[in-house]
Amino acid sequence: MRLKRTAPIALMAVAALSISACAESERDDSGGGDSGSSDLKDTFTFGAAGAPDVFDPLYATDGETFRITRQIHQGLLGITPGTADIQPELAESWEPSEDGLSWTFSLREGVTFSDGEPFDAEAVCYNMDRMYNQEGAGQQAAEYWTYFFGSFSDDPEGSLYDSCEATDESTAVINITRNTSSFPTILSLDSFSMQSPAALEAGDANNVQAQGEGFTYPEYSTNPVGVGPYVLESYDQANQTITLTANESYYGDAPATQNIVFRVIPDESTRRQELQAGSIDGYDLPNPVDWQGLEDDGNTVEIRDAFNILYMGLNPERNEALQDLRVRQAIAHALNREQLVQTQLPEGAQVASQFIPEAVSGYNPDLEPYPYDPDRAQELLAEAGQEDLTLTFAFPTEVSRPYMPDPQRIHDAFVQDLEAVGITVEVVSKPWNGGYLDDVSANGAYDAWLLGWTGDYNAADNFLGTFFSNLNQNDFHTSVMPWGETLSQDLQAADAIVDEGEREAAYQEINAQLRDEYLPGIPISHSPPALVVSGDVEGLTPSPLTAETFDTVTVSQ
Amino acid sequence: MARFIIRRLLQMVGVVAVLSVLLFAWLRSLPGGTVSAILGERATPETRAALTEAFGLDQPIYVQYLKFVQRAATGDFGVSTGVLPGTDALQIFVDRLPATIELSVAALGLAVLLAVPLGYLSARRSGSPLDSGLVILSLVGVAVPVFFLAFLLKYQFAVEWNWLPVSGRQDSLGCTRITNFFVLDGLMTREFDCSASALKHLVLPSLALATIPFAVIFRITRASVLEVLGEDYVRTAESKGLTARVVRARHVMRNALLPVVTTIGLQTGALLAGAVLTEKVFAWGGIGDALARAFEVRDYAVLQVLILAAAGIYVFINLLVDISYAIIDPRVRTR
């Protein structure tokens, strides 16, 4: 009996010994580099809400991925820290031709990719052509190219990009097919970063394949080579950690902190506890209700300038009563946006008077939001003969966006406001990824809904063009309105104006018309998103585009 | 016995096959979907149509299903679109299974090791303050939501006292990965600090995950022992002078264990459900975490693989339960 009992234990011990004999430690025990001063940590640890998709930014689409690729890659143009304005990055200057269709970029000299390959005009053209020449599944995966440049080389008609010439080692000329305010600003987007041609070739970077109901990505997408201050050290998928380390061959100042570790922590309250426990140094988008508490605990809540818009969309095709401007104005007067901003939105949020935030060129400072005036709303409804108006008004569930921290609460408040002026509201909700977006844009299934937009770069077209330029396919169904076509044409014309001053004036005029004459939807608010870092962190500049680079960040012990 | 096992294994295949049809149809009949999740606010009708076509989601559901079965037959269960885009869905399951097993084994081990002896003790001293105390504790264990308990545990042990880590599976120590069972890997490679770190990370999540199985197993054990203690054969055994130890081992526990084993089996299946929440709040990176994420972003391939595998595991565990029945109770074998 006794023997029997000890036998399994002995067996297990033998087994453990035998397996430990066959496994080798592969650990590199050299330890982290010393970042010079001993009162600073050599690692900045950031709590990410999700895992990154791919490290080739051309195929990336989400903020969690861009936050990482931004530290590894740089583009021709960069963003001035703390603003939404472009500044030189890998291009030192740029100059358009007379007709605005040919842009000459003078490149920074003496720059190499982290694999030692030179960054020169050839590399620029290689990158531009590589993006333009995507084929098959690569075209679908390169979502940002489609969005900002239109189409690829197999359909040159629809493409903004035409060609690229390397006139000498440090001069690249990029030709485009039409004038737009977006160029060259879009070259500052992470997706269009410059990557090492040799590494792209070696890693078969364009080999994206459709397989089943998804895409497979080539080897390169896990071995990115850029020119940025950091390089990808490792992605430990089992432990959900991404480690970056300083790029030895970076042309600029060496990063203030040697390593950055991104830890994937999907649950927000867990991220907060990790910060409290001191095991991470910061995380993005803390819930506005936590801001005060986080500050009280000695952390720094870095509030970015608002670069977004929350609006109530209206569909005059589904509900014909909404074709009457007086009805739309009545809704604008009925909504108590001032109170919403004060009670529900984060500190620094503003009531929106127009569809673009203040930092965007073309913002019209003379416009005032429609004041909260339920009596006026009722009068307008009576004038329009719509005292018995019924609206199907929808909000998304299972989502929180920077411009809309808690959709249901915002919706609740507005439902009360609308009912107070005699409008009957049919409340609809759907999960964000569970049909809401389809219903808003593809199906036009609601009379009114909540949605918003966070700007990609500083151009009014990125907001207004997105909403109203495409006459036949926009969420606001402006095609049924008599002014729909004019608005669409005016927006396209304004976007093509080369002179900056003239363009700004044109957009200001359009913004005034949108408020006074068109009112296709109700602009609600601009909400500043924040990120939070512990009190030991310094040197982080919050970016309105949420495009922070971490190379200047230090963490004291 | 062999025939019994083979029959049950065949049943398992049937269950998974039927489930795959239902699951396939159900996932695709949900509104929204992969394409919306990927494109977000940026969706235009053109990009939406292009992506739908590229993924083959524009075809009739039965065509999609046949293609799925065809590919599945070659071991290709599709590619992730959201959890880890571009990665084989089966690979995601294989990579993440060790994390979930590590956590589940720890949680279930904790629950069983505490619940069975305490349940026996409670029954033996039925009516005593110890018994009442344990019964109340088990009630609380069932009643407190896992996420709330997890929050409290983390707050007290990690944030306030700084004894244990808040979340994750291991510190960033650059550990070598062999099996992805972190504790085991550390032992195998003699990176003992890695094992220690992994064990420290295991404590709070396994406590949180163990509460419900503990409470359920404790109460079944207690009830079952109470019942057996009242049986004639126990009195007979005692009266013919057998030692207390023999009575306990051969007569009481052996008979009381049957329902307990069933319960443990069922709880093992239920652990997966609990793991979804526990893994998320502890950033555990296992199956449960992946399942929650896959649902958020409508990652069909990953959802299919994870749910089918979970169902398969559930059926398999029940098979193990039935086999252990046969071992504990010889009467079952002849049936």
Automatic annotation (TrEMBL), chain A:
One of its GO terms (biological process) is peptide transport. Pfam families: SBP_bac_5. SUPFAM superfamilies: Periplasmic binding protein-like II (SSF53850). Keywords: Signal, Transport. Residues 1-23 form the signal peptide. One of its GO terms (cellular component) is ATP-binding cassette (ABC) transporter complex. It comes from the Bacteria. Residues 86-474 form the Solute-binding protein family domain. CDD domains: PBP2_DppA_like. It comes from Phycicoccus avicenniae. GO terms for molecular function: peptide transmembrane transporter activity. This is ABC transporter substrate-binding protein. InterPro entries: Peptide/Ni-bd (IPR030678), SBP_5 (IPR039424), SBP_5_dom (IPR000914). Belongs to the bacterial solute-binding protein 5 family.
TrEMBL record, chain B:
Keywords: Cell membrane, Membrane, Transmembrane, Transmembrane helix, Transport. Its main location: membrane. It is a multi-pass membrane protein. The keyword Transport applies. It is found in: Cell membrane. Pfam families: BPD_transp_1, BPD_transp_1_N. One of its GO terms (cellular component) is plasma membrane. This is ABC transporter permease. It comes from Phycicoccus avicenniae.
